[in-house]
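FORM 12-B: Structure-to-Sequence Request
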């Protein structure tokens, strides 16, 4: 029988190590603010959008402009994928507060997930992954902006380099 699973759970010992490393992940996943977790955002825009900017830049976007934005963000995700390990995760348990970390069965599956609107490939509204080597979670957002969440420094320099190479901007 051929399995059509796209993800495979990481080994039990590694699950425990990752759960300890990302003890704050369930709070972030539930949009709870934590003082020990910092956020670094990546956007196609060079500034945070005001209400007026949002209306002007996010509504009625032409297909060409959206394709341009998606291409920039896809390029940024490609930099991440080619430079560090990327794992998916799902929240499990009765309270949905226990992360289960999973690896993609192929690079193409990972690339199809970690891109604009790629979360739909796993029936998620937006993609969300962790980068274990850098100790951060990476979330897609709805407004052409992605977010790194981290409790200890390590992602800033890599994200800055990837952003410069991809033509996107870092927003603090």
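FORM 12-B RESPONSE
SEQUENCE OUT:
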């Amino acid at each position: 029988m051929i399995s059509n699973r796209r993800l495979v759970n990481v080994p039990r010992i590694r699950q425990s190590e990752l759960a300890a490393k990302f003890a704050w992940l369930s709070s972030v996943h539930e949009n709870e603010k934590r003082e020990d977790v910092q956020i670094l955002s990546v956007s196609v825009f060079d500034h945070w959008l005001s209400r007026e900017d949002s209306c002007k830049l996010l509504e009625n976007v032409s297909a060409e402009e959206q394709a341009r934005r998606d291409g920039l963000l896809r390029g940024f995700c490609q930099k991440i994928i080619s430079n560090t390990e990327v794992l998916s995760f799902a929240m499990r348990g009765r309270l949905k507060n226990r992360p289960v970390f999973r690896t993609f069965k192929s690079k193409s599956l990972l690339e199809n997930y970690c891109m604009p609107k790629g979360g739909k490939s796993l029936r998620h509204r937006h993609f969300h992954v962790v980068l274990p080597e850098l100790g951060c979670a990476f979330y897609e957002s709805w407004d052409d902006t992605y977010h790194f969440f981290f409790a200890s420094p390590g992602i800033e320099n890599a994200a800055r380099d990837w952003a410069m190479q991809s033509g996107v901007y870092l927003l603090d």
